[in-house]
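User:
Hi there, any thoughts?
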Amino acid sequence: MIARLRGTIAHIGSDHLVIETHGVGFLVYAPRPVLANAGAIGDTMLLYTVLIVREDALTLYGFANSEQRSLFERLMSVSGVGPRVALGLLSTGTPAEIGGAIAHGDTARLARAPGVGKKTAERLVLELKGKLDLATLPPPPTGATAAAVALNNELGELLTSLGYSSAEASAAINAMPADAPEDLEERLRLALRYFGSA
């Protein structure tokens, strides 16, 4: 198994990068946050990797740290969740945020990830809720009413329907002030203002 890979970035794609080490270019699929923080062509990069062996392919997946890699493997232990879906989930937030959504049963947030429907989100919560270390996860949002949580879920769906990625929608919702009004139109205005200033 290839557990770590250090080399020079030769190419950065929309869902992968190529790391060249000792004259060999490794194509490595990675979540969006890893790709966004990869640096530039020619920079040196270290990735924590998982090699998945199939009958017709050897595929390498890369992560910024061992925590991210561990969550990727944990997500894939859920029936119906393959590498692409696990990568999609890891593209929507930090391991702590994703783990928090699972631990607190936030299926609407999980379902915003590409390839994750309502049933898969419910299966993730059902199969992983008791297996995550709750001490390392963020607590549920303080002062957030059930209505505010429902509004944020609706806002996430609205933002993705407007063309924003799940990760962008999550970032805008997470940046929402604690005293944001419990009104969808106002929250949408705040989210669009967030994108305007980003």
User: Anything to note?
Assistant: Strands lie at 4-12, 16-21, 24-29, 44-53, 58-63. The two ends are 40 Å apart (CA to CA). Residues 146-197 form one domain. The chain has nine helices and five strands.
